[in-house]
Amino acid sequence: MIISTGPTVMTAAIVMIICAPMLREKVPSGYRAAVDGYIYMVSVDGNDDIVSVSLYSRPLNSSRQEWMKGESTRQEQAKALAQEQINLKKAMEAEAARKAAEAAAAAEAQRQAEEEERRRQAEWDAAHPVEAAERDVNNASATANAASNQISADNAQINSNNAEINVRQPRLDQLNGEIAQLREVWASMMKAGDTARANQFHKSQIDPRLNEREPLQSAVDTLQAQNNALSQDVANQTATLNNANQALQDAQGRLQQAQADAEAKRQAELARQAAEEARVQAEREAAERAKAEAEAQAQAEAEAALEAARSKLEEPNVFGFAGFPTAAAITAPLTFAETGLGGYALGEAAAAAAWGTVRTVLADLLGTILAGSGVGAMIAAVTYIPGAGEGSDQVPGRDDINMFLSAMPGEAINLPDEHELLAAAADDGSVEMSVRGRVYFSDGLLKTYLVRTINPSRVRVLSATMDAVTGLYSVTIPAESGLPSRTILVSPEGAPGYQGLPPLATPAHNEAVPDNTGNTAPGVISPSVESFPQADDLDFRDAILIFPADSGLAPAYVMLQSGRDLPGKVTGTGADVEGTWLAGASEGLGSPVPTRIADRLRDREFSSFDAFRKAFWQEVAADPELAAQFSDFMQGRMKNGSSPRVRNGENAGKRVTHDLHHVELISEGGEVYNVDNIRVVTPRNHVEIHKGQ
Fold first, then answer.
1. Which of 42, 402, 502, 632 is most buried, judged by most C-beta within 10 A?
2. Is residue 602 a contact partner of residue 570, using CB atoms and an 8 Å limit?
3. How far, rounded to the nearest angstrom, does the alpha carbon of residue 146 sit from its chain's CA centroid?
């Protein structure tokens, strides 16, 4: 007899033997077998091979001599019993493995049969497209009809259930209302302490209604649950119907296509001989036409590309100028550009003088010890505006606003080395600069300043790429802080040709006129470094452009206009002021714009903030109450659009007139022409304000 009590996973096993030879039990480490009252433990390894036999226990009345007498025989019997159990276990495992293999083989055979059936069906469908499509039409129609019928049945049952609900719902609503009212009465009785009367009231008035409501509510809930299930089935059947209709449509399409294909084959055979006869002639004529069309298309594309390139250079948000050659960048320290009209640079003599100015100003700015405010100096002022009339800031016949930029080669303004610029551009990053540039355009003058701020600031580095339309190097600056999107196109070295690959079009190149006697000879430029208390509110719009190594172009530092230099409409309400208006200009954020001045300026449009500033002081001079607070001399200045002077001690260096300060910096999104964002401050207070920022 063999008893197994656990899995056979052991490194040692034991067999127990009692009286008549029998396998007593399976133990965690093997087997126990009983032989003539002696119990033996048989150990097996992980492969179920017997490795040892040992005595576990013997009868109490057995002497040592009796035990030793038949020990070898009993051990062999114990091993035989264990081996019998092991053989049986292995046989069972083999049988289980055989059945599993047969099941797997059957499943694989079934899969292959199904796959073969699908292949044969697909082969038959391909050979009989009309019959296959008709079969699919019939199947889809049957499915659609069944789904439609089920939807109708479900909807009919839903309508019936709704009718049943409508019969019960009025009484159910009435009972709910009555129960709610009666419970309020019952609650008041309980609150009054009349428990007996409250219980009697509940039993006589509320309980009957609860008993009536319960079956009504249960019936309504059951009907609504049925409706929910029916609605879900309607949705499922609708999906089935839609799928069936789609399948029907697809099958009908295949049927029509199969019929059309058959007809096409017949027609093709009829036309084959005629087509063969005409083939040679048609090919010859087609080749001739293709050649003529290709030549015409190439010419049209070339003309269109040239026109597109020229048009792009004339777009109102596109700057174009000649880049600074790596080999000779130092000969051109400054160039200018106007949107849609190309670039213009100083003549040879003026350029030489400008280079001296740039070098002197840069050295002075870097050598100045800052004392609470930035410093700056103008390095160029030019009056030539290509294509526009004298004193105009727009191109005739064009309504858009012209914008300007100034550009300098990196060497002229001491940009970081090429390695640092490349690393910053690859990271969409920036580099730190102590001196930055700012351009202004007003009264027909384009002025370029270099400014050193209190603390070095970051300037973005942009990588120029080849523009497919013009063949020039291009950088686009997204719209920001009141400024539209702007694209800068730079001519490669040797334009209009470069390494045998000329750009499609190049920007117009003209000569700028310095602001002197009106001729192209340079005037005497004496730059003066002075305090810029608003240096941190200059709204710098600058960037460093770098170009591919094979372009032959040096890095360029470009300075664009701020939002304060562009036209705008006045907004804001101002503030009521009492007493001496400018008494607060020397402290805090300064004096607000008076309401009366704001009312007269509101909705007026100005070409630049400079124009607004002039009109602002003229309006102050025209206001009797405000003008009376100033001397005749100061009133005369304001009538001319100039700011009145400040008291002694409120100046900042040579700055002795009141400033207009933007509370929220323009560079941080502050509105340029909103009078509520503007305060009148003294130069000294202006410096203090920007110290705190």
1. 42
2. yes
3. 48
Domain ranges of the chain: 1-124, 131-310, 318-564, 568-692
Of 677, 679, 462, 670, residue with least CA distance to 590? 679
Q: Locate tokens 């602001």: which residue?
A: 515
Short-list 360, 540, 528, 378, CA closest to 453: 540
Strand 342-346 relative to strand 509-512: parallel, antiparallel, unpaired? parallel
| Separation CA 659–CA 610 (nearest Å) | 12
Contact 453, 366 (CB under 8 A): no
Helix, strand, or coil (residue 373): coil
Within 102-230, strands assigned E span none
| CATH class of the domain whose range is 131-310 | mainly alpha
Name 586's bridge partners.
Answer: none
Q: pLDDT for 327-360, tens place per residue?
A: 765 666 888 888 888 788 777 788 788 888 888 8
The neighbour count for residue 349, using CB atoms within 10 Å, is 12
Q: Is the pTM of this model over 0.70?
A: no
Cα gap 647→373, rounded to integer Å: 20
Token pair belonging to 392: 């105009």
Give the model confidence (pLDDT) of 580-617 as tens digits. Answer: 999 999 999 999 999 999 999 999 999 888 899 999 99
- Nearest to residue 484, comparing CAs of 418, 553, 579, 560? 560
**CB atoms inside a 10 Å sphere around CB 208:** 11
Would you state the structure tokens that stand for residue 111, as one six-digit string? 């899969």
- Alpha carbon distance 429, 317 (integer Å): 24
Beta bridge partners of 324: none
Residue 551: left if φ>0, alpha if ψ -120 to 50, beta else—which one? alpha
